[in-house]
Amino acid sequence: MHKQIFVNLPVSDLPRTQAFFGQLGFTFNAQFTNEKAACMVIGENIYAMLLTTDFFRGFASKPISDARQSTEVLVALTCDSREAVDDMVRKALAAGGTAPRPAQDHGFMYSHGFDDPDGHAWEVFYMDPATVEQG
């Protein structure tokens, strides 16, 4: 059996968050989605559980950080091309997200990112397979 990963993130407005990520092209698994949580499908065996703050609090033993004030995590996602990186960031900005910094071109890797409406940091990047194989 392949491992699965569920990244759990607290959100202040679940319908707004679902609409935001829906505009970026993500879908939700209805089996694990209700008024307290939405299971966003990122890829095969990769999910983000978007939990209302009160529901999230039931799983956490420490205070919940405000992602608009401090960095709690950087969620990094690969894209198939530089254009796909730019397209996702463009969609995020149009849907109400913010870009904390300009795109970065490291030659072998091109990256950019956005903060979602709750301030969670999403880094999207493309790595040239030929360059990666060369080491």
How is this structure best described in words?
- By secondary structure, the chain is of the alpha/beta class.
- The chain has 2 domains: 1-59, 2,3-Dihydroxybiphenyl 1,2-Dioxygenase, domain 1; 71-135, 2,3-Dihydroxybiphenyl 1,2-Dioxygenase, domain 1, CATH 3.10.180.
- 25% of the residues lie in helices and 33% in strands.
- The protein contains 4 helices and 8 strands, in the order βαβββαβαβββα.
- The protein has helices at 14-23, 53-57, 82-94, 129-134, and strands at residues 5-11, 27-29, 37-43, 46-52, 74-78, 104-105, 109-115, 121-127.
- The strands form 2 sheets. A 4-stranded mixed β-sheet has the order 1-4-3-2.
- A hairpin with a 2-residue loop joins strand 3 and strand 4.
- The protein is globular.
- The chain starts with a strand and ends with a helix.
- The relative contact order is 0.19.
